[in-house]
Amino acid sequence: MSQAASTQSLSQIISEEDFIPILREASVDFISLLGHLSREGHGVNKLFVFTLLKESEKLENLLDDYGARSNQRFLYFAEVVASVRNFSLAGFQILHVVERYSDYLSATSDAIRREFEKDATKAMAYFMKVLSRFHDSLVEEAKDLGMEVAFESIPQEEWKFKPTPKLPYTIGGVKIDNPEERIISIAQSYRRVFKLFRQGGLQRRIKASDLSEIIPSRINENMMADFESQLHNIQSEYDTHIKGSMAEGKNPWTLTMRGLTAIPMHLFESLSWLIHFYERHENKTRGGEAGARIARLVDNPELLKVITGFGLHHCARYLAEGNEVAERILSMYVTPITYQLPLPQPQGFHARPATYVSLIVQEHGTDTFLIHEDKRFSCRSVLDLLEAGGMLADSGATRAVFEGDKRCLDDLKILSENNYCEDRDIPQELNYLRILRNM
User: Fold this and answer.
1) What is the pLDDT of residues 374-390, one digit of tens each?
2) Are 320 and 203 in contact (CB under 8 A)?
3) Is the peptide bond between 346 and the residue preceding it cis, with omega within 30 degrees of 0?
4) What totals of helices (H) and strands (E) does the chain contain, helices first?
5) What residue ranges do the domains of the chain occupy?
6) pTM of the entire structure?
7) Domain 337-436: which topology?
8) Tens digit of pLDDT for each residue in 83-117?
């Protein structure tokens, strides 16, 4: 006999009728908590959602231990419990950001914060509406199973918001070795995340009328989890090496970048759970009848709005701000040098070579300037480069002075050695230009 067959033969079988009282007893707190959402004037905060999350995890584990999702009679009940857990996980991450916003970005614009909190409130209202529907459907399903539903009242005071007081900040600046190198590394890592986000076309609003049009073709659970993981690594590196240090005290932009890491990190985790829910529990391809029933409770267009119009939209916004801060930080720690480079031939700096120069500077994220007659032109700006090109042409110059970080200037040197790609292909060393020019 094989090991698998031997293990299966040792598993005890419980009858469906014998399982019902076990499920009833295990469901009391969970269903009572969900029922709280149907009460008029109910309050919902992070504590409530966290408690609901823990109760749903506990009940889901019991259902999985008994193999409920492999039993046709209990499958739908188990799928709804799992769906409650997914929405609780997503909601917890959003509420965590709302509660900690001042810690993350104390100096941020009030208008940006108000917009985020307004959109977060709408998203949470939708979550609570869906969770309330899950409750009603579970109660009906329990009755169909022949399970008497018990409801224990929970006092409203349990969930009233109680602000947590903070201890005074008394940690002095800790001295660390090579803080500048560490800060540069963190800023460069942040810019890589933003670059990947842009390469996926996620910085623009995704237009779709149904989630099936974008999941999994444009976005999926693994993609969101990967973004969350990369940002978590950046946050961990910061907290290990920079937090509370003298370097952090000297450069407040580092703390801003830390906040602009945490917010999208939590939003990506929220998105990964919402997309997991769709892929695992609602998707028409694999959900079967249970999935179809759940889909009717969730309202696909509303879930689409939360995923694209709230989650991805605000991830894009905070990542773009974080990228600007990372570039500002990188420029602070650069020791600028100058290169004299030949001008594009035969027309000088017109639109195409100016665009390639600008893309290289954007790729490196540090301030770079073209200097002519004591005037400095930002190489981030195509318009600045066109203006400089006109002045260079008028003066009859054949070379220009570039000032900036060595890594950026080295790439500009390669570009100039290939005549700014005026009459030849982009060199292999600058292959990233092929991607950037099409974004």
Assistant:
1) 899 999 999 999 999 99
2) yes
3) yes
4) 16, 4
5) 14-154, 173-333, 337-436
6) 0.86
7) Histidine-containing Protein; Chain: A; (3.30.1340)
8) 999 999 999 999 999 999 999 998 667 889 999 99
